[in-house]
């Protein structure tokens, strides 16, 4: 019967443990997903995945084993102590004094284990971060021959873990030594005082025998409580960071519901916008930026690296909020619009698109809230000139995306297809053609021209580019330097002026805008291969 009870008890605690860990991970993951993007600027991927994995599992010991054993032994020890006092209150008080000393040592040991557990989790997270970073950048590691350096970084954190484990082992040895010393002290005191009590006629030999047995039971119950309490303290130490992350308030963007406009024309205005990243409050990134993008207009933003081009896009996507100034969409402040509704109307392609480990169809469909058919996916892929290479894959659109399967240009075209499929009112291309070859870039620019000429779906397009050929597809160009707008102009006017001087457009534009991503000893335009450039028509888009 007892075996059956133990089996049922173990099963119940196991189920409770499973439910607890599942809910903890769901709650923690949900809390992390709803944080501001600035939160992820300061937290590492390895640390967060460690909290979701090992730390949540560590907490399961609280219910799965430790709490169960602590409660059971507390009840057993309390019953034994009451019986000891009934047998002989002087001997019972002496045993209680010894158990109190053991409990004090137990609390010190548990407190140390809590601190050690926090250090262990931090070092484990750092070691995981090093390993994850190394594996994700393995080609770079291999090319530069830094295998030994990466191994050294990993060994550094393993060494710290070993030091912590060594100190934990020493503390555990001290705890065991204290227990054995006090345990044998209890037996000696029981025999000495018990023998004296027998001679005095206060107790009988039978009562002394019962007393010794129950005192051992009390001491062992105290030891089990201490041992499981130390494990419990380790779990608490490991879970402190988990609970801190779970208690984080979600971003206001997900809490407050903003305006949902009936339609968007695509008029974008940056009004005296200044910005610095929360992680670098003393470094201004944008300073008093004023830019206007009219409906159905293609605007190219150029400038040196670090001039604030991509930051403008981040603000427009509401990944961050401006420090000063505001962004207006058709005259409405962007911060007053519903963020989820707003992002559904934007198509974005970044410089380094990241695809999810799912089939190509799912990657193209990703983020679309409306009902999407396979024909729609293939249409978007054709528009991005990705259909041919996708069809040539063994499983076509059902091919699972892998880092080694697709080239950078192919990933870029899939990302462009994803943006086109959303049928956005505003299209943002942040170096979207940087990974494409000349032919693919020409095709994508053809898509841009088709988007502009489609009278039924007018779109505003913002292009961030480093290639002159990409800039030529724009109506206007915005030049940024040091977080400020230094010049805004119409390309058609500049190319019209070139007719008079007969200067090469590549040289004139690069000189005029100081548009050089690298500090070179010789002029940048002399290093660029002379790819075909359209003749100096007033409308450089070819329309």
From TrEMBL:
Main location: membrane
Topology of this chain in the membrane: Multi-pass membrane protein
Residue ranges of every copy of the ABC transporter domain listed in the record: 268-507
Ranges annotated as spanning the membrane: 81-109
Annotated localization: Membrane
Domain ABC transmembrane type-1, chain residue ranges per copy: 8-234
Keywords from the UniProt entry: ATP-binding, Membrane, Nucleotide-binding, Transmembrane, Transmembrane helix
Taxonomy, superkingdom: Eukaryota
InterPro entries (alphabetical): AAA+_ATPase (IPR003593), ABC1_TM_dom (IPR011527), ABC1_TM_sf (IPR036640), ABC_transporter-like_ATP-bd (IPR003439), ABC_transporter-like_CS (IPR017871), P-loop_NTPase (IPR027417), Type_1_exporter (IPR039421)
Gene Ontology CC: one annotated term: chloroplast envelope
Pfam families cross-referenced by the UniProt entry: ABC_membrane, ABC_tran
UniProt GO MF annotations: ABC-type transporter activity; ATP binding; ATP hydrolysis activity
PANTHER family reported for this sequence: ABC TRANSPORTER B FAMILY (PTHR24222), ABC TRANSPORTER B FAMILY MEMBER 26, CHLOROPLASTIC (PTHR24222:SF64)
Protein's recorded name: ABC transporter B family member 26, chloroplastic
Taxonomic source organism: Lithocarpus litseifolius
């Amino acid at each position: 019967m007892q075996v059956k009870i133990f089996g049922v008890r173990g099963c119940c605690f196991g189920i409770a443990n499973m439910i607890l860990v599942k809910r903890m991970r769901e709650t923690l993951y949900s809390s992390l997903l709803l944080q501001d993007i600035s939160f992820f600027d300061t937290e590492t991927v390895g640390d967060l995945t460690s909290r979701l994995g090992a730390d949540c599992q560590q907490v399961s010991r609280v219910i799965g084993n430790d709490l169960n054993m602590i409660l059971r032994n507390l009840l057993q020890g309390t019953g034994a102590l009451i019986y000891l006092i009934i047998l002989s209150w002087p001997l019972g008080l002496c045993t209680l004094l010894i158990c109190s000393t053991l409990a004090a040592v137990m609390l010190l040991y548990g407190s140390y284990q809590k601190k050690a557990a926090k250090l262990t989790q931090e070092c484990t997270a750092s070691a995981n971060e090093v390993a994850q970073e190394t594996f994700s950048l393995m080609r770079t590691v291999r090319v530069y021959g830094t295998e030994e350096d990466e191994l050294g970084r990993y060994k550094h954190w393993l060494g710290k873990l070993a030091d912590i484990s060594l100190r934990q082992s020493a503390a555990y040895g001290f705890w065991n030594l204290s227990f054995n010393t006090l345990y044998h002290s209890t037996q000696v005191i029981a025999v000495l005082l018990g023998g004296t009590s027998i001679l005095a006629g206060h107790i009988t030999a039978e009562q002394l025998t019962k007393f010794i047995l129950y005192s051992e039971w009390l001491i062992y119950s105290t030891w089990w409580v201490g041992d499981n309490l130390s494990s419990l303290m380790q779990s608490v130490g490991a879970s402190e960071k988990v609970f801190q992350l779970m208690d984080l308030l979600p971003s206001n963007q997900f809490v407050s519901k903003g305006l949902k406009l009936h339609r968007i024309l695509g008029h974008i205005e940056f009004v005296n916008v200044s910005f610095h990243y929360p992680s670098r409050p003393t470094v201004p990134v944008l300073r008093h930026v004023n830019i206007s993008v009219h409906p159905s207009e293609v605007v190219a933003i150029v400038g040196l690296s670090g001039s604030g081009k991509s930051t403008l896009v981040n603000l427009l996507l509401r990944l961050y909020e401006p420090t000063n100034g505001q962004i207006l969409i058709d005259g409405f402040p962007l911060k007053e619009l519903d963020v989820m509704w707003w992002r559904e109307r934007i198509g974005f392609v970044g410089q380094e698109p990241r695809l999810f480990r799912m089939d190509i169809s799912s990657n193209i469909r990703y983020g679309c809230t409306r009902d999407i058919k396979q024909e729609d996916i293939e249409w978007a892929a054709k528009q991005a000139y990705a259909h041919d290479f996708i069809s040539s894959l063994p499983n076509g659109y059902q091919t699972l995306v892998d880092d080694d399967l697709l080239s950078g240009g192919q990933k870029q075209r899939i990302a462009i297809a994803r943006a086109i499929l959303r049928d956005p009112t505003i299209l943002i291309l942040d170096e979207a053609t940087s990974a494409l070859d000349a032919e693919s870039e020409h095709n994508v620019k053809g898509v841009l021209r088709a988007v502009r000429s489609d009278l039924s779906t007018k779109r505003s397009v913002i292009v961030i580019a480093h290639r002159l050929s990409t800039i030529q597809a724009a109506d206007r160009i915005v030049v940024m330097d040091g977080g400020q707008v230094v010049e805004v102009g119409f390309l058609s006017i500049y190319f019209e002026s070139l007719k008079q001087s007969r200067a090469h457009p590549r040289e004139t534009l690069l000189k005029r805008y100081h548009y050089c991503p690298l500090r070179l000893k010789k002029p940048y335009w002399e290093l660029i291969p002379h790819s075909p450039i359209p003749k100096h028509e007033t409308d450089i888009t070819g329309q």
